[in-house]
Amino acid sequence: MELLYLRSPNAARYTLRTGACLLLAGDLGTGPLVQHGSSTANTWAQCLIVLITTDVYWNSAWQKIRSEQFRTGLYLAQWIHTLTQVRDQLPYRRQFAVPGIVRRHAGNLTTRHIRLWRLAATAVIAAELALPPALLTPQTMPYAIATGIAMHAAFSLLKPRQLITFSGLILGTYCAFTV
Question: How far apart, in whole angstroms, are the C-alpha atoms of residue 162 and residue 7?
């Protein structure tokens, strides 16, 4: 997941270590041993995927909480405003699928628009904090999955070249929460 979002040496090492752990994964009751027989249980791998997904969401929320520009909505307002202004000059302009209604009604840097983006930023932070525990609870899981799909669809509209694959992978990890 990390390799498809950020291309840094740490991401490569992290992904390789995670892959090695998954290769050695077996049934949770037997420990992380290399076993030469086939098994239908791979609860270590499932546990690792849940932990990685939780880590990705909570670290993302932590970074957003620490960013005053994001918390105030200014970052998102500036992003949409700039996209609206230079969209026709971008080499991959067809890939930016921000709906016209969003650009028209929240694409300027007025106080009202920044307030709307502050509300969106707060909702994203709250969703990233709440999704992992909600995915683990059977009663809230369907709502958490719907929220995650909507949130990642919106992310992919803002930065499709970077986030479409990442969002797809994160949504795929939701399967590990269900078993």
Answer: 11
CA dist 173 and 152 (Å) reads 13
| Long-range interactions of 45-49: CB distance < 8 A, separation 24+ | 45/176, 46/176, 46/179, 48/18, 48/21, 48/22, 49/173, 49/176
Q: Would you say the pTM of this structure is higher than 0.70?
A: yes
Residue 39, φ and ψ in degrees, nearest 5: -140, 145
Residue 160: closest CA among 94, 98, 96, 106: 96
Contact between 118 and 108 (Cβ < 8 Å):
no
**Structure confidence by residue, pLDDT tens digits, 57-78:** 898 899 999 999 999 998 888 8
CA 42 from chain center: how many Å?
A: 24
Q: Are 143 and 72 in contact (CB under 8 A)?
A: no
